[in-house]
C-alpha cells in the first residue's frame, strides 16, 4: 500500500514538474529578443512564493520527501524565470518586479518562517503551514476569477441602470410631451389674442385714416344754400335777361 502511494506521488511530481517547465518556451523567446514585451511578472512571483512555502512544508514534514522534491524543483525554475524577467524587463517593470519580489518572496516568506519557529508550537506547526500553503495555492489558481467577478457585478449593475433609465425615460418623455402640448396651446391662445388685437388695431387705424382723409378733403369755397338760391334766380330770368344783347 505504501509503495502504491509512493508511485502515485512520483507520477504526480512528474506532472507538476512538466507544469513548472511550461514557461521555458516563453523565456527562451524573451532571451532571444532580449525583451519581456507584454509579459507580466506576477504569475512567476506568486508561483515562486507558493513553491517556496510548499518546500518549507515538506522540510517540516518527516514524510514530505515528494513534496520537498517537486516544490524544490519548482522553486528553482520560478527563481530562474523571475531573474530573467528582471534582466530583460524595461526599467519601470523592473522596479515594480523588484518591489513585489521583496514584498512576497523575501518579506512574506521570511515572516512565515519566523512566526512558524518563534510563535507556533511544534505540535500545530505543520498544520498551520499546511493550511497557509493550501490557501495560497487555491488563491493562485482562483486569481483569474478576479477578472470575471468585477465583470459579473458590472453586468448586473449596468442592467439595473438601463432598466431604471428606460422606466424614467418614458415618464420624462410623456411629461415632456404634455408640457409641449400645454406650451403649444398657450402659444396658440396668445397668438390668437395677438391677431385679434392686431385686427382690432388695424380696423381702428383704417377708421382713423378714413376720418382724417375725409377731413382733409377740400371744403367748398361757396356756401351751398347761397349757390342753390343763385340757381333758382337764374332759372326765373327771361331769356333776354339771361343773354343781354
From TrEMBL:
Coiled coil: none
InterPro entries reported for this sequence: SWEET (IPR047664), SWEET_rpt (IPR004316)
Secretion signal, residue range per the UniProt entry: none
Membrane topology classification: Multi-pass membrane protein
Pfam families attached to this UniProt entry: MtN3_slv
Keywords: Membrane, Repeat, Sugar transport, Transmembrane, Transmembrane helix, Transport
Similarity comment: Belongs to the SWEET sugar transporter family.
Protein's recorded name: Bidirectional sugar transporter SWEET
Origin species: Quercus rubra
Lineage of the species this protein comes from: Eukaryota, Viridiplantae, Streptophyta, Embryophyta, Tracheophyta
Amino acid at each position: 500500500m505504501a509503495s502504491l502511494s509512493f508511485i502515485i506521488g512520483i507520477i504526480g511530481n512528474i506532472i507538476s514538474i512538466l507544469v513548472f517547465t511550461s514557461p521555458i518556451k516563453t523565456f527562451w523567446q524573451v532571451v532571444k529578443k532580449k525583451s519581456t514585451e507584454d509579459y507580466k511578472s506576477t504569475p512567476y512571483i506568486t508561483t515562486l512564493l507558493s513553491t517556496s512555502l510548499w518546500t518549507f512544508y515538506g522540510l517540516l514534514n518527516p514524510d514530505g520527501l515528494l513534496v520537498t522534491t517537486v516544490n524544490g524543483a519548482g522553486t528553482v525554475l520560478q527563481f530562474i524565470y523571475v531573474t530573467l524577467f528582471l534582466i530583460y524587463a524595461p526599467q519601470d517593470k523592473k522596479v515594480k518586479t523588484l518591489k513585489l519580489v521583496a514584498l512576497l518572496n523575501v518579506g512574506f516568506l521570511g515572516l512565515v518562517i519566523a512566526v512558524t519557529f518563534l510563535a507556533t508550537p511544534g505540535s500545530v506547526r505543520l498544520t498551520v503551514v499546511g493550511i497557509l500553503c493550501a490557501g495560497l495555492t487555491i488563491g493562485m489558481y482562483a486569481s483569474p476569477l478576479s477578472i470575471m467577478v468585477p465583470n459579473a457585478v458590472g453586468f448586473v449593475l449596468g442592467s439595473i441602470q438601463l432598466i431604471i433609465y428606460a422606466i424614467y425615460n418614458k415618464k420624462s418623455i410623456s411629461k415632456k410631451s404634455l408640457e409641449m402640448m400645454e406650451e403649444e396651446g398657450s402659444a396658440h391662445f396668445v397668438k390668437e389674442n395677438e391677431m385679434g388685437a392686431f385686427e382690432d388695431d388695424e380696423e381702428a387705424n383704417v377708421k382713423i385714416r378714413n376720418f382724417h382723409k375725409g377731413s382733409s378733403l377740400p371744403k367748398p369755397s361757396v356756401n351751398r344754400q347761397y349757390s342753390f338760391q343763385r340757381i333758382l334766380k337764374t332759372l326765373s330770368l327771361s331769356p333776354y335777361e339771361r343773354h343781354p344783347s
